[in-house]
Write a structure and sequence with these properties.
Elements lengths: L4 H9 L6 E7 L2 E7 L2 E6 L2 E8 L3 H9 L1 E6 L7 H4 L6 E2 L2 E2 L2 E5 L5 E3 L4 E13 L2 E13 L26
Antiparallel strand pairs: 1-2, 1-5, 3-4, 4-11, 5-10, 6-7, 7-8, 8-9, 10-11
Length: 168
């Protein structure tokens, strides 16, 4: 029995997902990317998984740099995510006009984020269209009164990511 792509999309889009910016860096090149497939995968050591499109700039930078950051945003400010659906422009300490600083690993930490996780890649697994990067959290923190803010989720926007590839 074949799956109905519309039903599959609707069901998969119903899974609650965080909406965040994944930062990556290799050498002098920095990027930030909107992501929703991010979750904790281990308590000891503390590991976070981020599933990243294999054709993306972020994928290339995480592979080359061996690190990534997860930058959580307030539910009250989801406009930011639209600007990071394509490769970011890095100049003068900013990605797409948003101030960043290097984390402990060298990956960009967004100063407007309410919280961040700075991760060193421990493993990766190619999974079709995406690679699951598993990073050990080496630094984290709250910023901008973040411990009191609700974290942005996919449902807070009109964005849809997941399901089946379009045209399949």
């Amino acid at each position: 029995m074949a799956l109905n792509p519309e039903t599959l999309n609707t069901v998969l889009w119903s899974i609650p997902n965080v909406l965040c910016l994944v930062g990556s860096a290799a050498g002098e090149e920095w990027n930030g990317m909107t992501a929703s497939w991010v979750t904790q995968v281990s308590m000891s050591p503390v590991l976070v998984g981020a599933s990243i499109d294999a054709s993306s700039v972020t994928h290339r930078l995480i592979t080359a740099g061996g690190t990534f950051s997860v930058n959580l945003w307030s539910r009250e400010d989801t406009r930011t995510f639209v600007k990071f659906s394509k490769p970011a422009d890095y100049r003068d300490g900013m990605l797409n006009g948003r101030r960043v600083r290097p984390g402990v690993t060298g990956s960009p930490i967004f100063e407007e984020a309410i919280a961040y996780l700075d991760c060193s890649v421990r493993n990766s697994l190619a999974l079709g269209s995406h690679t699951l990067f598993v990073g050990e959290v080496v630094d984290c923190g709250f910023q901008n009164d973040g411990e009191h803010a609700a974290v942005a989720r996919m449902e807070d926007t009109r964005m849809k990511y997941g399901g089946v590839l379009r045209g399949h």
